[in-house]
Amino acid sequence: MTDCIFCKIAAGEIPSQLVYEDQSVVAFKDLSPKAPVHVLIVPKKHIKNIAQFQDEDKDLAAHIFVDVVPKLVDKLGVADNGFRIVINTGNNGGQTVPHLHVHLLGGRKMTWPPG
Ligand code: 5GP
Ligand code: ZN
Question: Disulfide check for 79: which of 45, 49, 70, 73 has CB 3.0–4.6 Å away?
Fold first, then answer.
């Protein structure tokens, strides 16, 4: 999508602090981190949010959660102490960038419930 900031980051047109990349996904540090570790896992394909997943996205969804998350939490050193995965969705969900992204937060004790 031409006017999407995460499409541009995924395409390398806007710089980011990349921590992971493969054929279908990038992960980069959040510009405004809410924890010592705060990375966004972003599919290269423009999907607005998790409610817009299609049948054709099953492999991508599995790839993110089965392959990428375990690899990243190991690499970032948060696997043992724990971490939080967040997918803000739509207006009430607090989504501000309309391109699906998975927040990976760690490095501190999280509180519950979230605000
Ligand atoms: P949301 O509120 O949509 O769940 O999360 C969007 C996240 O993207 C926010 O945590 C925000 O700090 C981050 N963000 C917004 N613009 C940029 C950017 O240009 N670069 C990076 N690295 N993060 C961004
Ligand atoms: Zn996009």
Answer: 73
